[in-house]
Design goal:
heterodimer; A: 623 residues; six-stranded antiparallel sheet; 15 helices; B: 392 residues; 12 helices; 15 strands; 33% helix; 19% strand; disordered C terminus
């Protein structure tokens, strides 16, 4: 994940969170506002219901009192107060009177509580209503809710009782209105609200007892839990009913218990408030929020993409520059303007690369000068040795000529022989230098490294045990399962010869020459170790420099040739040396070398060097 | 066929004439006048085979139909004229019967009987009050109110039985028969006294048997008192408690009131009983029905046999013939067997009550199986000009 992507994601996340928080806040505020509005509507409706109820109550009281005060009722009371008053005469009176006074319930009840006439249940004459005989000031009582029996079954009634006393006998008039759908229909409800009435006429919830202004309520079973809760503990409560899975179909119901004369639960008024508008508005807000968020996110994304691109461009340029520098392009520069941190960093980078280039050029120059010096020294050294006999021989010839020496001929022949020998020596020196400069490109073929190693060791077997010098014991640890590689056997042979010669030179007192082959990742590994005196760190560093040698008669080209061969095969070589223990050369060759020779950067394993700091005499140099 | 001469020999008529004559000479029978008569039914055809339309007053319908048909049959089959003959007929509205001058038993006193059809009971009573009619039958439950308003009423002996019948036989297959314990519980729960006193306004008498006291003399042996406690005990033994549907004639307000009262009584005895209006001729599924049975004879044996024949189809009771002549004990035993089966629960005996205008004289309520003796009726007061035929 790029720095720009990270920045973009952070920016987008921040944007999404911000938009989400705003949407949530708006939704919460809207919900709160709707809840408040619903509460106000419900309160208003409850208040309206209570006003309507009170008005109806007063109306019922007045109408029942009017019946009690009517002449016919008084005459009935007088008639029934007589010892043999005939109640059967009045058995049908209640129906007509109730109709005249628009009452749903009307009972004329005699002094002993027997029904004389009943409007709601005409056939119930003669039966007793005991509760009306209970001592109570009916005039002060006003109207009250009661479960009244009718021909069709029990009903919820708003009743009032009046009493007409003649002598010591009372005539009770119980009248009232049915609390049902007509009553609900009389309530003026705001849009989206409705009122339902549950008549608590049975011990358990009965769906048929739930009505609205049009009749039995639909899906009444949904109210069972609300009703049962009220039946257990009457009190105002709020409940929500989801009619369908759609949240917009939900209704919030405010349940209000309707209590009777004995504080018993007789009915439950349910004021429902549709959640449709609120949910719709919430959805609109949500949709708007989503749209705004989407547009914001899109714009934010575009802006973020552009902004992050703008912000990260200098960084990317710096990274690119760093990569180029790492890739060897020391001339890489970062074109970043500005005075901010990135600009300062870019400026520092450019300065750093300039300094690096400068230092590299200086280093190269120094290396070049050093190399030329070394070459000059080696040439001088190599040429000085044959030149001195040449000079001496020529001087001898001159002296022999000047002295006219009789032995001039003999001296001449001897001197020309020396001269030719030294000239031959010079030609050899020049030839070796020429040979190094004309290193051929490898001709690749399948080569078994072990065979090359064995042939080289066999070549030097005579010298290992030569008379007059301490013996060198070769040890071969060759992996029999080593895969063949593509290489130039001749060049490898030549490189190994140089390494073996090098090792032999390093062991003037004899020792062990160990050659080990092993498979490596993608190729093979060869280790040539000696038990010589080892190398210093400075020697390790310059070991592969052409014409650098620590030997008295060396040309300094042996290891350079080895390094060249290894490099031409796409491999790498490094040296590990420990003073007093010996030196190990490691070569790794790929199974399939690249077709063209690669450059051979010189590097020094500083990390490894660092790791070996406790052993300061042990060095490693990689070419 | 009745004969006017029989009426002249009736003891009541003689007594009435003897009682009236010394008081005022104008009370003597006189000819002429139009007897205005109102009935609740609507007769749409004078064809004896054609069914008449349903009307409010089945009793009046039967009487008038038989009266008119008697005229027609006499005319067509025997070539002997009846006391009246139809001179005008407007289907479903009114009819006019004119006195037959050469009636063998003597010419009727009134010249014309003007019949207005399709008048409801309340309208008939009102017309009687306002003297717009001379004769109309009044439902028993309205008699007290009519009398209080000054309507002159005439009652027959209670000869119509209002009974609750539990359907049996083929009828019971629709819902299944009601068990005898349930039937007994229902019978015991019914307060007949309240029905008579309140619903019938003391017209009629509670019925315990299938024959009235005046006919059999043994009716008092059947209990008419409700025993709610026993009814409760019985209903408590019945598990599960059946739901009984009691049907009543949808056009009969008395049956409706009685049925609703029975529902209240049954509810008190914890019996689940509901009342349901049924329409005659339609498929009705009920367990029990309220029916009216009118005695067809003053003879208790004949009346009982008539009843059992009528009830056989509904109740599934086998109509067994009584010995001829049957002793009162045999009649009582037979009557008691039916009552104890609780298939038939007698409720009340109803009289036939007639409202008369002040000018109607010599009206004698007919006995069981007898027609209205309109030929014996004469009108008091000045004779109004005769209504021309075909003229209102």
């Amino acid at each position: 994940v790029t720095f720009r992507t990270k920045l973009f994601l952070i920016f987008t996340l921040a944007l999404v969170v911000s938009v989400g928080l705003v949407a949530a806040a708006v939704t919460a505020v809207t919900r709160r506002a709707f809840d408040e509005m619903n509460r106000q509507h419900t309160d208003a409706l409850v208040a309206q219901f209570q006003r309507e109820f009170a008005q109806r109550s007063d109306d019922v009281v007045h109408r029942v009192q009017g019946i009690a005060d009517a002449e016919g009722t008084v005459r009935m009371a007088i008639d029934l107060s007589r010892p043999k008053g005939d109640v059967s005469v009045y058995v049908n009176d209640a129906t007509g009177v109730a109709k005249a006074h628009q009452l749903d319930f009307l009972d004329f009840i005699s002094n002993d509580g027997s029904i004389i006439s009943s409007a709601e249940w005409p056939a119930r004459f003669g039966y007793k209503i005991d509760w009306v005989l209970q001592p109570e000031d009916w005039a002060a009582r006003g109207s009250f809710l009661m479960k009244a029996d009718t021909q069709e079954g029990p009903a919820l009634a708003l009743l009032s009782v009046s009493r007409v006393r003649v002598g010591d006998k009372d005539l009770y008039i119980v009248g009232g209105e049915r609390l049902g759908r007509e009553f609900l229909a009389s309530l003026v409800l705001p849009t989206g609200m409705r009122a339902l009435l549950y008549m608590n006429l049975d011990p358990a919830f009965q769906a048929v007892n739930l009505i609205d202004s049009t009749g039995p309520a639909t899906q009444a079973d949904q109210f069972a839990s609300i009703v049962e809760k009220e039946q257990q503990q009457p009190g105002e409560q709020i409940a929500k009913i989801n009619w369908t899975t759609d949240a917009a179909s939900a209704e919030m119901f405010h349940a209000m218990p309707l209590l009777g004369r004995q504080k018993e639960l007789l009915g439950i008024l349910l004021i429902g408030s549709s959640q449709h508008d609120m949910v719709t508005l919430q959805r609109q807000i949500m949709l708007l929020s989503v749209c705004v968020a989407a547009i914001g996110l899109l714009l934010g994304a575009l802006l973020g993409w552009w902004g992050t691109a703008r912000v990260t461009k200098p960084v990317r340029q710096l990274a690119e520059g760093a990569r180029e520098v790492a890739g060897g392009n020391w001339n890489a520069r970062v074109n970043v303007r500005g005075r901010n941190e990135i600009g300062q960093l870019a400026k520092a980078f450019n300065q750093m690369t300039e300094q690096l280039v400068d230092q590299r050029e200086r280093l190269i120059q120094a290396e070049r000068v050093a190399a030329w010096r070394e070459v000059a020294r080696r040439l001088a050294h190599e040429l000085k040795n044959p030149l001195f006999p040449l000079q001496t021989t020529v001087e001898n010839l001159q002296r022999a000529k000047e002295r006219n020496h009789g032995e001039f001929e003999e001296v001449f022949h001897e001197s020309t022989g020396i001269l030719l020998a030294e000239i031959e020596n010079l030609k050899n020196i020049v030839g070796r230098f020429s040979e190094f400069s004309k290193m051929p490109h490898p001709e690749l073929s399948s080569v078994q490294l072990n065979e090359v190693v064995r042939s080289v060791v066999k070549l030097f077997e005579a010298q290992f045990g030569a008379v007059g010098r301490p013996p060198i014991t070769p040890e071969l640890h060759l992996d029999d399962h080593l895969q063949p590689i593509e290489a130039d056997a001749t060049l490898l042979h030549r490189a190994l010869e140089n390494l073996v010669l090098n090792a032999m030179d390093a062991m003037p007192s004899g020792g062990v020459l160990m050659l080990r082959t092993s498979p490596a990742e993608g190729g093979v590994h060869l280790e040539i170790s000696d038990t010589g005196t080892g190398l210093t760190s400075e020697e390790c560093e310059r070991l592969f420099t052409p014409y650098y040698t620590t030997k008295q008669h060396g040309t300094g080209l042996g290891l350079a040739i080895v390094q060249s061969v290894v490099s031409d095969h796409g491999g790498r070589i490094w040296v590990e040396s420990e003073a007093g223990v010996g030196t190990s050369f490691h070569i790794e060759l790929p199974k399939h070398p690249p077709r063209r020779a690669v450059s051979f950067p010189i590097s020094f394993d500083y990390e490894k060097q660092k790791d070996r700091e406790p052993e300061p005499e042990k060095h490693k140099q990689e070419a | 066929m009745k004969r006017r001469s029989c009426r002249w020999l009736a003891a009541t008529s003689v007594a009435f004439v003897l009682a009236a004559l010394p008081v005022e000479s104008s009370r003597r029978p006189r000819y002429g006048g139009t007897l205005r008569l109102e009935i609740g039914e609507t007769i749409t055809s004078l064809d004896s085979e054609a069914p008449s339309t349903s009307g409010e007053d089945e009793t009046a319908k039967g009487e008038i139909s038989s009266l008119i048909r008697e005229v027609l049959e006499t005319k067509s089959q025997f070539s002997v004229p009846g006391p009246f003959h139809v001179t005008a007929f407007e289907a479903g509205k009114r009819a006019m019967l004119t006195a037959t001058e050469d009636y063998p038993q003597g010419r009727p006193f009134v010249d014309v009987i003007e019949i207005t059809m399709g008048r409801a009971a309340r309208e008939r009573i009102l017309d009687l009050e306002l003297n717009k009619t001379d004769f109309a039958e009044i439902p028993a439950e309205d008699v007290r109110r009519a009398a209080e308003r000054g309507v002159r009423v005439s009652r027959s002996q209670p000869d119509e039985l209002l009974a609750l019948v539990f359907l049996g036989g083929l009828e019971a297959k629709k819902r299944g028969p009601v068990g005898v314990r349930v039937r007994e519980a229902v019978a015991l729960s019914i307060d007949r006294g309240a029905i008579v006193n309140f619903i019938l306004q003391k017209e009629g008498e509670p019925a315990g048997g299938l024959l009235p006291q005046w006919s059999s003399g043994t009716a008092f042996l059947f209990s008419t008192v409700a025993d709610t406690v026993h009814a409760k005990e019985l209903s408590a033994q019945i598990v599960p408690s059946p739901k009984i549907v009691l049907g009543y004639d949808s056009g009969d307000s008395l049956e409706q009131a009685v049925a609703e009262r029975i529902v209240v009584n049954a509810r008190e005895a914890r019996i689940q009983l509901t009342a349901q209006a049924v329409k005659p001729g339609l498929e009705n599924v009920t367990d029990a029905r309220l029916i009216r049975l009118r005695m067809q004879s003053k003879s208790p044996a004949a009346a009982l046999e008539s009843f059992t024949e009528s009830l056989a189809v509904m109740t599934g009771l086998e109509p067994t013939a009584l010995p001829d002549p049957a002793s009162p004990e045999e009649i009582y035993e037979r009557e008691g067997a039916i009552v104890k089966s609780y298939r038939v629960v007698p409720l009340v005996w109803l009289p036939r009550v007639y409202g008369l205008s002040a000018r109607v004289r010599d009206w004698t309520p007919p006995g069981p199986g007898e027609s209205w003796p309109l030929a014996d009726v004469w009108l008091d007061g000045p004779v109004e000009p005769a209504v021309e035929e075909g003229k209102e």
